Amino acid sequence: MKKSYLDTMPDDKGYFGDFGGSFLPPPLEAPFAKIRKAYDELSKSPEFLDELRYIRKHFQGRPTPITFAKNLTKFCGGANIYLKREDLNHMGAHKLNHTMAEALLAKKLGLKKLIAETGAGQHGVALATAAAYFGLECEIHMGEVDIKKERPNVIRMQILGAKVVPATHGLKTLKEAVDSAFEAYMSDPDSQLFCIGSVVGPHPYPKMIRDFQSIVGAESKEQFKELAKVDLPDMVTACIGGGSNAMGIFSGFIDDDVKLYGVEPMGRGDRIGEHSASMTFGTPGVMHGFNSVMLKDKDGEPAPVHSIASGIDYPSVGPEHAYLHSIGRTHIGLCDDDEAIDAFYTLSKLEGIIPALETAHAVAFAMKYAKDHKDENILVNISGRGDKDIDFVAQNYPR
């Protein structure tokens, strides 16, 4: 019997083809090896998996539903559009799927503190939630620009008991938050767990976060057949920064004859510093402990990036996404800032669903795709709700 893709990728060293691996300074090699060993054991433990199922059902509120977007479908006049409602997951985004599991892992390892980066703040809120649930300390590093832009999420993190540390160097956004969090983790790797917020970082994180997020794809496959009365959607799409929500939903359909589109942020244009479209314009490179494709400046260093959505303004992408795109299994969709704002308002006014600005990128692409693919069925991962973005959008893009 042929093994599924998820059973064969990555290899034992964390490589998806040429991408992935683990590139760490010597002081971090032993702590990461300990995390890798613990995950390998716990991922096969019935006790660990049963506890995770209990949390997902009785705390997170899973399964989240699929909604047929009848008004948006009529508006676009082409394909049928379905929405996987991760915005209805506790705390309003897909992030809790992996943070609760990471916190459970930390608890099993006897660690006392969770530390992480965040861009839009959804990962930070989810990790602060997990820390509160398990009685752990929590420290979140966030770019100074994003702290001002995503103030509602900063307040939520603080109410939940997390310490929010501003990253004040460079562009003061997501990359700098990751840099800052790594530095803080290196100061004490023995008592805290670095909880990476996406399918990025050194092995085992790209695999581990994908596995924790795969619940989205597993639910979607079963629910879609029941709701749409067809076996599979024709196309599945999700926004991509690091790419955890996309790998989560793609994992359910990766062995099937379904088109998979990851939507990258084109921002304000195609010049360096105007976008965050790593797979479209990037080249191979190592950053934050893993090899993938990345946007580079003239000196070969990580380039400045931009997106209206703080959670996807990252100069690289998860190594699994780089691999899947390199072999032609996935495709790239593009969405600029203006299109994301338009989709933000359109979905809100037509369906009564206010999406996160990150999610709006996938919605915008689905709207464009639907018009040219009549009678197809599209499934969009609504990775998060837009509560965090409403002040920013209302002040800067009123309609």
The CATH top-level class label of the largest domain: Alpha Beta
Tally the helices. 16
Quote the beta fraction. 15-25%
Please report the distance between the alpha carbons of the first and last residues. Answer: 56 Å
Outline: globular
- CATH architecture descriptor of the largest domain: 3-Layer(aba) Sandwich
> Can you give the mean pLDDT?
95
* CATH topology grouping of the largest domain: Rossmann fold
**Helical content band:** 40-55%
Number of domains: 2
Structural class: alpha/beta
Largest sheet: 6 strands, mixed
Based on DSSP secondary structure assignment, what is the total number of beta strands? 14
- The ordered string of helix (H) and strand (E) elements is HEEHHEHEHEHEHHEHEHEHEHEEHEHHEH
Question: Quick recap of the structure?
Answer:
This protein is α/β, with parallel strands linked by helices and about 400 residues long. It has 16 helices and 14 strands.
List the helices and strands and how they pair.
Elements: H1 5-8, E1 15-16, E2 19-20, H2 26-42, H3 46-60, E3 66-68, H4 70-76, E4 80-85, H5 96-109, E5 113-118, H6 122-134, E6 137-143, H7 144-149, H8 151-159, E7 163-167, H9 174-186, E8 192-194, H10 205-228, E9 235-239, H11 244-250, E10 259-267, H12 278-281, E11 283-287, E12 290-294, H13 319-326, E13 331-336, H14 337-351, H15 357-371, E14 377-382, H16 390-396
Parallel strand pairs: 4-14, 5-6, 5-8, 6-7, 9-10, 9-14, 10-13
Antiparallel strand pairs: 1-2, 3-4, 11-12
Helix pairs in contact: 3-5, 5-6, 6-8, 10-11, 14-15
Describe this structure in words.
The chain is α/β, with parallel strands linked by helices and 399 residues long. The protein has 2 domains: 5-57 and 95-205, Rossmann fold (3-Layer(aba) Sandwich), CATH 3.40.50; 61-93 and 214-396, Rossmann fold. 45% of the residues lie in helices and 18% in strands. The chain has 16 helices and 14 strands. α10 packs across α11 (244-250). The N and C termini lie far apart (56 Å). The model has no long low-confidence stretch (mean pLDDT 95).
